[in-house]
Amino acid sequence: MPSFRHSCRALLVVLLIMAGLSFRALAAEVSFQYTLDAPVVTSAGVYDAQGKLVRVLWTLTDQPAGQHDAKWDGLDAFGQPTPAGAYSWRVACNSGSAINVGAIGNSGLPPSAAGHTPANIESVAVDKDGNIYTANGWDEAGADFKKWDKDGHSLFDAKFEIRNGKPNGAPYSIAVDDQYIYCGVGGWEHEPWNNRQQIQRFRASDGKPAPFTGTHLMDGHINVYEWPARQIPPATPPEDAELMKAPLRAIAIHGDTIYVADALGGKIRKYNKETGDPEGDFAVPLPSAVAVDPAGKWIWVITRHGWLRALSAADGVDGGSGIQIDPETVSLCFGPDGVLYAAGQVNGEVSTIKVEGGVPHGIHLNVLGQKAVPGDRAPDHFFRLTGVAVGPDGSLVTITKDPPGGARLARWSLDGKLAASPFKLLWETFGTEFVSLGNYGERDPDAFYSMSFKKYALGDRNAGKWDYAANAFDGQSAYRSDPHGAVRVLHLGDHDFVFLPMGDGVQCYRVDGNVMRLAALLGGRDPGPGGKPPRGSKEKLGQWTWADTKGTYAPADNEIRWFKQPGLAKYTCFGMDVDAAGNIVFANSTTHSIWMIPLQKLNDRGNPVYDWADAREIIPRDHSPLGFEPTMAQRAADGSVYAFGWSKPWPSPKNNPFWMGGTTLVRFNDRGELLWAVPLPAVSVGLDVIPPGKDGQGGCMVGQGRAAQIDQYTADGLLIGQMKPGDAMSQETGWMDNHASVAVNRDPRDGVLDVFAEDDYVCRIGWYRVEDGKVRVVSGAMELR
Question: SS3 string of 628-680?
Fold first, then answer.
């Protein structure tokens, strides 16, 4: 009869087998030793005979110089026993630095949310002390409005008072007096905010709300409209309708009265500036700007097609002597000398008009500025001049938009020595990036191109120096869509090309001096061959390509190459990416696999040619226990593929806002075989491969969504470095929330990695320098018995 001891042992064996273990797995333990020449950060893993990662032993552990002992318990990453046989260990050692050296695309100081320059500035005003106030529309960091001193330093901002107020909304016009800031606000276009158009008031001393005192008001605001778009007459010309959708075009303050230019109502409205009570109105066709003369006797307005007229402040009677200036004059203000200033968008100029009573006596065109052209950068060249204000010393303040996105704020002093203009630049600040990323090419590593079509000149890299060199946008906006991948700048044939993953495809732009010209397109529905579909439309999915053959930089119907007509295509992706050879790679959510569309050729004009018919699946759907579902993929120079997505062991967490991201990082070899799979520290949304280098070990960089931290992985799947915003970004950043979050390149001159990261919160692109050449791997063999 078996002894009690033997019975217990047999029962333990059964229980262990049921649990998927064995005596060997439980007892087996392999030891190994390694020596470090200096203190380093280490991560380690175990690999099978085919070089596939079996288990990560530890990550990011600081270790001193000397000999170290380590052990492996024989289990894999899921706690299961591994077969007996030959294995190897690898210890990755990182003695290099990863430093946040700068942030590109925002000149605001300090480099923080409090000091940043918004990428959208709609309106500007100046108070009696020369302080500047801007209405900034939507700003991710909550600077709905902002106060600056006369030297361009940020003093305070709205801190979400409008965006998170009642209604939730954004300001688009602004005025100021001795005590208060007045903002024209548009609420969001859904209930319960009903797109309310209001005048809201705030303290000029600190930006805190200062509701009007009238008891009849809603939440202390002057409510002018709800759902204004529904009230636009059907036959209204489109350009007029655009003004009417945000009808409170301008605000002026004089004495106890607020004057509001109401484009939808066709009137100048008057309100008591303390109570908010209405005090009447004057009929004016489509007013877009308003100013009151210093004596308070005449109200000057811009009406339809740029007509400047004066109305009596007492009874609204027209002065009768109007003149036509810039047909898209958007701003009026009086200087301390009683001269009227006007900002016009058609000519990109600030003009002055001398007035006496209600009569204009002379106009001096172009006292400052000229219309900018693609590739321009001069501070006094305006792409879209959106406002002008005059300080108590006669200095001018201008705001301008740099399409397709970005804003500049500048102050100009009166200086009669200049021949072309009586004004000279005192300072300029700008925010030119929002939800954006950028990169440079190997041929010219100092020319940095962004998804906002801006060109920057990179300077001292270790100091993070850069200059805004040019607005490279050529005006072709029809095909712009949401950014969805890493920017790639490639030299193909005789030209440099900037590849921008946007929408459900890729857009290729040819560098022509300081301008990016549309050269090739591949896509489906967003955009389609006719451009980006209107919001809410239900365009059917097709598969099409185009390459410029005539130098027109825009597709013609007969140039579109269709693979699948609309309604017949079946693919979905959150974005596509381009490898170093110009091939397009993407994770197809319909097939749960990874595809590649090779660069077919360069056409006679030297532009890239793609054909959906060449698309092929390079990584089939994973039916293994891992159950990997890719959401983003990048192809390395050696043909291997890095990807992240979801998996059975590491699924998407509940209430995950980063639906386009992943919890699982994998690498496949050039034959499509899985080399390793590791869990990411957090849900991540950005991915790019590390280019090969003389000393670099390869691998990839992954951007975490919520923390906006960048994780550095070796080609062996070991997490060997992490980076977060440092002093150059005031330790501040927002979420990374799309695939256009991380881009990596290697400076061919010093071999150091440049890593770029999205930061939509502070309207910029983070810049890191990483010494991956100081990552070394020590390894050895071991036997599991």
Answer: CEEEEEEECCCCCEEEEEECCCCCCCCCCCCCCCEEEEEEECCCCCEEEEEEE
What value does the mean pLDDT take over residues 206-220? 94
**Side-chain-facing half-sphere of 689: CA atoms under 13 Å:** 27
- Name which of 437, 617, 612, 599 is nearest 529 in CA terms: 612
267 close to 253: Cβ distance less than 8 angstroms = no
Phi, psi torsion values for 13, nearest 5 degrees: -60, -45
Sheet holding 629-635, edge to edge: 629-635, 641-646, 662-668, 674-689, 700-704, 710-713, 719-723
Q: What is the DSSP string of 461-505?
A: GGGT-EEEEEE-B-S--TT---B-S--EEEEETTEEEEEEEETTE
Backbone angles phi, psi at 693, to 5 degrees: -150, 175
Q: Can you tell me the distance from the alpha carbon of 258 to that of 251, in angstroms, rounded to the nearest whole number?
A: 7
Query: Cα 58–633–763 angle (5° rounding)?
Result: 90
State the DSSP code for 713: E
Say what percent of the chain tops pLDDT 70: 95
How far apart are alpha carbons 181 and 614 in whole angstroms? 59
Residue 230 three-state SS = helix
Closest CA to 34 of 64, 76, 77, 73: 64
Residue 716's beta-bridge partner residues?
none
pLDDT tens, position by position, 606-652: 999 999 999 999 999 999 999 999 999 999 999 999 999 999 999 99
Q: Each residue of 462-480: pLDDT tens digit?
A: 999 999 999 999 988 889 8
Pairing, β 381-382 against β 370-371: parallel
- Please tell me the distance from the alpha carbon of residue 138 to that of residue 279, in angstroms, as a whole number: 31
Q: Output the pLDDT for position 24.
A: 44
**DSSP letters of 271-337?**
EETTT--EEEEEE-SS--EEEE-TTSSEEEEEEGGGEEEEEETTT--B-S--EE--TTEEEEEE-TT
Is the pLDDT at 102 greater than 70, yes or no? yes
Residues 6+ apart with CB under 8 A from 33: 67, 68, 69, 70
Q: Which residues pair with 383 in a beta bridge?
A: none
Query: What does each C-alpha distance from 89 to 62, 479, 678, 698 come to in angstroms?
Result: 18, 50, 16, 18
Task: Find the helix or strand (DSSP H, E) in which 9 lies.
Answer: helix 4-18
Q: What mean pLDDT comes out for the span 137-156?
A: 97
Q: Residue 25: enclosing H or E segment and its boundaries?
A: helix 23-27
Give the H or E element holding residue 79.
none
In sequence order, the 6+-apart residues with CB closer than 8 A to the CB of 42 are: 36, 58, 60, 61, 62, 63, 91, 92, 93, 94
* pLDDT tens profile 317-336: 998 778 999 999 999 999 99
Is residue 19 over pLDDT 50? no
Would the pTM count as exceeding 0.85? Answer: yes
